[in-house]
Amino acid sequence: MSAGTIGPTYGPPLTAAQVVSRMVETNRLRREVLRGYTSLRNYHLELRGLIHLRANMEVKMTYRSGVKDFTILSQSGSAYVRNHVFKRLLEAESQASQQDEKRQVAITPENYNFELAGYERDGDGHNYILKVTPKVKRKFLFQGFIWVNDQNFSIVRIEGQPAKTLSWWTPKVNFVYRYKRVGDFWLPELNETVTDVRVFGRSILTIQYKDYNVTDALDVKSIIPLKPVSSDRAPMVLIPPSPPRE
Known about the structure:
Blueprint: H1 16-33, E1 34-49, E2 53-64, E3 67-77, H2 79-96, H3 99-105, E4 112-122, E5 125-134, E6 142-149, E7 155-162, E8 172-182, E9 185-197, E10 201-217
Antiparallel strand pairs: 1-2, 1-10, 2-3, 4-5, 5-6, 6-7, 7-8, 8-9, 9-10
C-alpha cells in the first residue's frame, strides 16, 4: 500500500429497507413488552427577541397500555407559555398516543420514505443514519434524519423539522430528540426545539426526561430477540458529514 492511501473501507451491512424492517419489528416488540412506566419531565421555554418570556413546568407522565396521562407537579414563569405552549404540547402528545393517531404518526413505511444516509460509530457500536421523508404533509409527521442502533434497531436520535408548517407565526422549526437506554428499552432523554417566531424573535424549548420507573413489563427473554448483524463487513467505515443544521 502506497503512502497516503487509506485501507479498504466497507459500506453498512444492511440496506435501508432491511434496517427499517428490523426497526419496525423492534418497535412492535417494545410496545408488546413495555406495558407501563412512569417518568418525570422538566419543560423549559425561553423566548428571546422583541419580548423576553420564560417558563418552567415539571410533569409526571404515566404510560399504561399505550396511553399517556400527565400530571402537572409544579410550574412557574409566563402564564401564557404555560397555558398556550406547555399544556398544548401535553394535549397533543396525549392525542398522538391514541390508537388511531399512533398508526398515522408511526415511523413506518406506511407514513415515510427512507434513504440510507450514513453509518457511524458511537459509544454503543454503530448507528445507521436514515433520511426520512413523509409521504404526506400531515400533523405530527416530520422530515429529517433518524439514527438507528445496529444491534437492537432502536431509534437513538432524531433531527428534523415538522412536515407541515404549524402556524404563520412559526415559519421555521428545528428539533433534536435524543434517547437513552433504560434497562432493556431506549426511551427519551432530551428534546430541544428551536423556533423562529415572526416579529417576536426565537424560542428555545427544552424537555428533559428523568426518573424512569417501569411498572409493568413482560420478561424480555420471553420475546425472541432479533439476531444481531455481524459487523465483520464493516471494520472501518467512511461516512458522510452529519446532516446540516440550519
